[in-house]
């Protein structure tokens, strides 16, 4: 399919020192950081995330992204060569995004957009995100996405060609190379986090609890954040917490209610699982799946989105359109129990992959600046 390119705009000037300065939205997120090659100087300099209003000076918070304000582009356009959008535009409507595109055009700045989400996992209604994509995808000078399936969707809906680049590793060294802890039994984990809108927590947990109850040396661990039980929190979901507690009282699962894990605690948690079940009913790609691949934890992922195209995993039927296929979830768990798949990235392969991803980004930026 022929790529319909964005409208022409003034050509940016190439800098004499050959470095490329990228205004990346965001810059500090682990995905974006790992799109650069830490082993060599790839010549790509990503601007630090401007601190949002109200964020303390010690905060690493990047949202809401200041760079999405056209006034920021007007005031800082001499400081970057390429604008690269990843995510963080949930609060921007189509008009605001069109104003951002217009500001970039005004100053001759190319726009690269990595399409991480074809459907926003934080929004029940798909319409706002689709409206945002209807602005960004046609306007971008280059598009990137993570899987062939997502690229096919982009071509089908917008007649645009997206370069497919894999998700880089999430876990850092030396943890990436550390052997998995030895343990007996078979542990399945479902992390409900703060019960995102795309999570079908209770239907999935019921099937897992019933299936594992019949398996020797198998147990189910369910984690959830404290705010799910906080009446003042946006994530308050007392029905979810009540049923999870009832299942725990029946001895069908172990429930852990806690604050957000830091990286070390999260890697410890994932390394202690034989199978991590993603309870999503809609979505596109998953950094969680990538972390499991780094640590050697098998994943059961739903058939919605393109999770199975990211890394080796087990699949089960689940989508907002068709609901949960209980039999396929049960079959995925039993398959993991019998086979104990040991899919894990090698540190060497991840380093080579990261270098390739970094080189591909640099090539895209150079192509736009030539």
From TrEMBL:
**Coiled-coil features, chain-numbered ranges:** none
InterPro entries attached here? Glyco_trans_4-like_N
Q: What is its EC number?
A: 2.4.-.-
Q: What class of enzyme is it?
A: transferase
Q: Which UniProt keywords apply?
A: Glycosyltransferase, Transferase
Disordered: where is this region?
Answer: 1-21
GO molecular-function terms, A-Z = glycosyltransferase activity
The segment(s) forming the Glycosyltransferase subfamily 4-like N-terminal domain are 30-166
This protein is called Glycosyltransferase
Organism this protein belongs to: Streptomyces bikiniensis
